[in-house]
Write a structure and sequence with these properties.
7 helices; about 150 residues; single chain; globular; mainly alpha
Length: about 150
């Protein structure tokens, strides 16, 4: 029976109940509201991005999760939180180690601010892998021209 006085479930309750779709919808509403800099909830914008990305993973939607993680990386970089940005980039890399976009972002980040790359050996390997992917993508174009 519908009870108009019943409190709306919060996101953590929805997740605990396995209602990932409802939880995600609620988080997306909050995210839209918090995008505005003058919003009362803007300070938790980055938290919402992370929660939505994590929910996408629980729903087995890694491409959607990477989209929100990428926005979260941009958010942290804009504010100078490079260590947090690196952590999210590494999480994205674990989701798909062969994703050229993620490899390129990590390589670019390593070139711009190398001191924030905690594992420099990993960063160097990713830079090489990124260069290899870029050259492989250019090679078919060069063959077409000849």
């Amino acid at each position: 029976m519908w009870n108009p006085f019943r409190k709306k479930k919060d996101v953590s309750e929805l997740i605990k109940d396995g209602s990932f779709i409802d939880a995600r919808a609620q988080l997306l509403d909050e995210l839209d509201e918090s995008r505005d800099l003058s919003s009362d909830t803007h300070s938790k914008f980055h938290v919402l991005l992370g929660q939505i990305a994590d929910l996408c993973l629980k729903q087995d939607q890694p491409l959607e999760a990477k989209k929100y993680y990428a926005e979260l990386v941009d958010h942290h970089v804009e504010r100078g939180f490079y260590t947090k940005a690196v952590a999210i980039l590494k999480k994205m890399h674990r989701l798909d180690p062969e994703d050229p976009e993620v490899l390129t972002r990590i390589a670019d980040f390593n070139r711009r601010v190398p001191k924030y790359m905690v594992n420099t050996k990993m960063a160097e390997e990713l830079v090489e892998k990124s260069k290899e992917i870029e050259s492989n993508q250019r090679a078919p174009r060069a063959r077409r021209r000849s």
